[in-house]
Amino acid sequence: MAPSRHVGGSPRAPLVGAGGAMKSPLHPLALPHTPFGRGPPPPAALLHRHAGPRSASPPPHPHCPLPPPPPPPPPPHHTHARPHAHGPPRRDRSAASLEMAASDQELMLRSWRRDGRAIALGAALGVLVLVLVAAAAALLGAGPGPRPPRDPFASMRDVLRGSFIPRHFNATWLPGGHLYFLDEHEQPTLMKMKKQGDAVFAYNLISNESMQTIRKLVWAFAFIPSPDAKYILVKHDIHPMDPSTDTEMQMELVDVATQRLQPVEGPRGRRIQQAIWAPRGNSFAFVQRNDVFYVPSAGDRPLKALRVTHDGEFGRIYNGLPSWSYKVEVFKDDPAMWFSPDGTYLAYGSFDESAVGTVVITEYFPPRRKGPYPNNITLRYPMPGTALPQASLWLLNTQAAVACGEAHPVRLVVPHELQGGERTALLGGARWATSSELAAVWSNRVQDVLKVAVYNASTGALDEVAYSLAARDGGAVDLRARPLFSRDGLRVVLAEPLLGSAAFGSSAAAARPPADHDAEGEDAPVYDGPRLLLLRRRRDARAHTVLARGPVAVRAPLAWDEEAHRVYFLGSGRGEPGQQFLYSVPDGAEGAPHAPRCESCALWMPHTRARACLFAAASFPPDHPPRFFALSCLGPAVPESAIFAVPAANDTGPLERGPVLAWDAQPRLRARVAAVVLPWEARAELLLRRGRRARVRLWLPPNYDVAKAKYPLLLDMNEEWDGAQRSSERFNVDWRAHLAANRSVVYAVVAAGNGPPHKGIGQDDVDDQLEAIRELVERFNYIDAARVAVWGWSRGGYLAAMTMARDATRTVRCAIAVSPVVSWNHYHALYAERYLHLPTPDDNAAGYARADLTAHAEGFRGKRLLLIHGTHDLSVHLRHSLNLARELQRRDIPFEFQVYPDVGHGFATVWPHYYRKMERFLEECFPID
What we know:
The protein has about 950 residues and is of the alpha+beta class. It is about 15% helix and about 30% strand. It has a nine-stranded mixed sheet, with helices on both faces. A hairpin with a 2-residue loop joins strand 21 and strand 22. The longest helix is centred in the first third of the chain and has 19 residues, at about 125-140.
C-alpha cells in the first residue's frame, strides 16, 4: 500500500498501521543524498509503526567470537577501562589481543548474518538441501576450520556496479518536526509527525501534472522545499564549469498552492551556482557568477533579486561559496552563506585567490571542444609557504537592504591575535548564536590556534572571543568545529576542536587549555580523544567545563534539549574509534564531567537488535526542544533507518524501545547479501613501541584453513590518523571483500589512531605500520611471510610507498601507490601546513625533506612498485608521480606506471580497468588463487 496522496493541500488520510512494499529503489549508483537533494525513494517499511517498547529481552549479541575461545589471562601490558553504566557494547580485549592470538580460535571472528530461510523447490531439491546441510553440519562439528560456502560470492562486476551499496536516510527535517523526502515516484512529499501515538500524515507537494512538466527539464536532480513548505526549489540541467566552482545549474520555483513554475534568474541569465532558503518563510539567497543575490519572497512574480556583491570573478574572488581550496579542505559541499534564525541577517564568506599561484591541468581529449589541440585548465592551488586565499566574513541586514533598494554589507573584523604582518587568518565557518549574534570560527595559518568570535549583528562589532584554543606538541585545531548554542546564546557546547597527536596521543593533556572540571585518576579515559565542552559567555575564553568523561572521542554535538537538560552528540565507542554511537549527557556544570549515556545502544529496529548497531548516525529537527530524531544504523549489518521519540525529561536511563516509525530496512539488499558468501572478519589489538596502540581488522577467506594453507597479506593504508575510517564498523562490500572471498587474500587495515608525530609525516606513522606488519606475520602462521603487499590512495598511496621504501627487513615485497603525494612541498598548503607547518629553515624545512618520497628512492630497489595516476587529478597532481618516476629512472630502479588520460582523483570512469590492473599486479607479485 502506497502512502495516501493529496496534491497541493491538506493530507487526505492519516497513515496509521498500514503496511506493504514500495517500488524498487533508485539505481544504487545514483548520486548520494544531500540535504533536500535527490535521494532514494521512501522506504519499503515507511508505514510500519511500533506502538511502544518491546517487552522481550534482547537476544545474544550477533558479533561474538566463533567459536568462543577459552578465556585467557589478560596480557600484562593491557589495562581495561572501567565499564560505563550506560556505555556502548565493548569487545572482549583479552580475546582480541594479538598477545593471546596464538591460534585461529583466539581471534574475534564473525561473519555476516545469514537469513536462514530456505524456499521449498520440490521434493528432489529438498533432499539435495538436506544432504548439503548434513555435510555442512559434519564439517562444522569437527571444530574450527573451513566454512562451506552456500552460494558463490558476487562477481567484481556486481561490486563495481554498486549492487551492494546501501541507501542512505533520504529525508530532511523541517521546522515543526516535519519530514521532507522523495517518494517512490520521486515526487516531493511532506510527512507531518505528531507526538508519539498520534497519526502520521504524508502528502505530495507537487501534482502529477507539474511533475510531468518538471520531468521535461534536463535531469531535475534536487527538490528543496522552503521552510513554510509553500514553495519548492527545483534544481536541474547541471553542467561543469571551471574546476574551482565545479558546476552551474538552472532552478525553477514551484508554487505548491497554484502548482505554477517560474525560473530563478539573475542579471546574467538563468545559470545559478548555489541557493539556500532562509530558516523561516520563503526568502532565499543565491550565487551567480560568484556574486551573492537576495530574494525577499519566492512569491513575487517576477522574482525581485537584490544584488549583494559586485566583485565576483571566476578564478579570483568567490562570494557566498568557497573557493576550490577552501572547498576541498574546509567547507566540502557546504555553501558559505548563513541566514540568521529569523532571516533578518545574511552572513557570507568571501575568498580572494588573486595572489594564489596557479597550476595547469591538461585535458587531452576535451569533450566539449573541437579541433586538434588539447585544453589547458588553470587552477589556483596554494602550496606550502606560498600565498593563501584571503578569507573575509560579511554581514547584510536584509530588511534594511530591501527598504532602501540596495545592499550595504559590513565586513566583520578578524580577532586581533590573528591579524597583521604575514599572518593569514583562515575562516572555518559561521553559526548564529541568536537572531542578533553571529559566531565565526577562525584559525591562524598553520592551524594550531583557534578562536570562536561572536559579533553583534546590529553593529557588526566583535563582541567577544567566546573560546580560544592553542594546540601544542604538533597538534592541529579543527577548522570545521561547529559550536551549538543555547537558545539565549549564553552557553555553548562544542566538540573539542583538536586534530592529530593533540587529540589522540599522550600530548593531549598538554595541548588543552585549563578546564573548570575534568576527569582525573581512574576516571580518566583510556582512549584519549576530543571531549565535549560547555562554555559560558562573558568569561575567560580558555575556561570551560568538560561535560562528558570516559574513553569516548566526541565527534559532533547534534542537539540540545534544554527542557530535559541533555545534549546529544555522536561519539566513538569506548576505546574504539571505528565505532560510532549516539550519546547524551546532562548539560549542567554541577557534577561534571558526566558519564555519557549511550542512546543508540538501547534502541530496537525491525532488523537491528538493541546493542547490535556499532556505527550509528542521527539527525534532529531544528526545533526547541526536539521531539523526534532519525537514527540510522550503518553497520556492521545492512543499514536501516527509523524515527524515534526523544526521551522525556524524567527518563533516568536509556530505554529499550522501538521506533515511532520504521523508515527503511533495505530488504532487497538484505536478500542480496544473504545470498552470497562474505569473508570472515577478525579483530585484534597490538601494543606498539612507546605505548602506542594499534587496532587490526582482517578479512579472511570464507574457507580459510590455518592448518593446511598460507595466504598472502594485503594491507590497506587508506586510514585517517584518528583510525576511524577504513577500520570503521560501517557496512561495506567492496574490493577487499572480493579479494578475501574470491582470491583467498587476507586483507588487513591497521589503525594506529595516534595522530601524526610533531612535524613528522612519514616517520613514526610509517614505523607504526611496519611494526604492525611484522607482528602480524610473526604471530599468525596462516599469513605467508613471503607474500606481503601494501596499497593506498592519495595520502594512503604515500604511506604505502613510504612503508615499502623504509622497510629494511624486506617484509613488504610489493606496493601499489595510487595518486600518491610524493613531495609535501607540492601538496595543498591548507593540508600540508596543518601537520608540517611551514617549509622554511626557521620552521620545518627539514621535516618536509625527510617526508619526501624521492629521498627514499633507493628503498624501492629489488622490490615491486606500481604507480597509478590520472592526468586530470586536481587534488594530487600528476607531477607527484612523475617526480618519483623521474628519480627511480635516474637510479635505474624498475617499476610499473599506469596513467589514466583525463581521469580525476577518484577513477570512477575507469573502475573496471583500475581494479583489474591492481589484481594483475598482485598476481605477478605473488600468486593468488
